[in-house]
């Protein structure tokens, strides 16, 4: 079974290689996805190759520090969820749609600085 998009109970958001997002390092905005290849095995956040070590731990977890604060969901991803056909069923069930709206507001706010 593929794992394009799933739900992370830990972070209450979507994960999987079908989810595009920015590296969670605060000073990095490289595009990554939330597939297994980009996830820290401890904090379960996604990082680019520069910020995820070969042991699949991020800088913070590798040093036993507090994990980074997850970034807001990227707007383009939220728009995809809103408009893409593959999400029609999910939208009809209004699953996580309130959460989606909250994310959109957070993403807008982050964009405006
Ligand atoms: Zn980590
Ligand atoms: Zn990075």
Blueprint of the fold:
Elements: E1 6-8, E2 13-22, E3 31-34, H1 59-62, H2 75-83, H3 88-92, H4 97-112
Antiparallel strand pairs: 1-2, 2-3
The protein binds zinc ion (2 copies).
Q: Could you characterize the architecture of this molecule?
A:
This protein is α+β, with helices and mostly antiparallel strands and 113 residues long. It has two domains: 1-71, no CATH class; 72-113, no CATH class. It is 30% helix and 15% strand. It contains four helices and three strands. The chain has helices at 59-62, 75-83, 88-92, 97-112, and strands at residues 6-8, 13-22, 31-34. Strands 1-2-3 form a three-stranded antiparallel β-sheet, with no helix packed on it. A hairpin with an 8-residue loop joins strand 2 and strand 3. The mean pLDDT is 88. The site of one zinc ion has 8 residues, from loops.
In total, how many domains does the architecture comprise? Answer: 2
The structural class is alpha+beta
Give the end-to-end Cα distance, rounded to a whole number of Å: 40 Å
Shape: globular
The number of helical runs is 4
Series of secondary-structure elements, N-terminal to C-terminal: EEEHHHH
Major sheet description: 3 strands, antiparallel
Report strand %.
Answer: 15-25%
Helix content: 25-40%
Q: Outline the low-pLDDT stretches.
A: none
How is the largest sheet built, in terms of strand order?
1-2-3
- How confident is the prediction overall: mean pLDDT? 88
User: Which ligands occur here?
Assistant: zinc ion
The value of Rg in angstroms is 14 Å
Task: Find the count of extended strands (DSSP E, 2+ residues).
Answer: 3
């Amino acid at each position: 079974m593929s794992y394009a998009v799933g739900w992370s109970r830990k972070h209450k958001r979507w994960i999987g290689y079908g989810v595009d997002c920015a590296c969670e390092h605060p000073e990095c905005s490289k595009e990554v996805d939330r597939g297994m290849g980009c996830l820290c095995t401890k904090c379960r956040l996604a990082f680019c190759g520069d910020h995820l070590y070969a042991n699949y731990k991020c800088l913070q977890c590798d040093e036993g520090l507090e994990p980074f604060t997850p970034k807001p969901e990227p707007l383009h991803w939220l728009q995809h969820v809103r408009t893409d056909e593959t999400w029609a069923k999910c939208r009809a069930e209004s699953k996580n749609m309130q959460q989606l709206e909250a994310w959109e507001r957070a993403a807008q706010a982050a964009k405006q600085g």
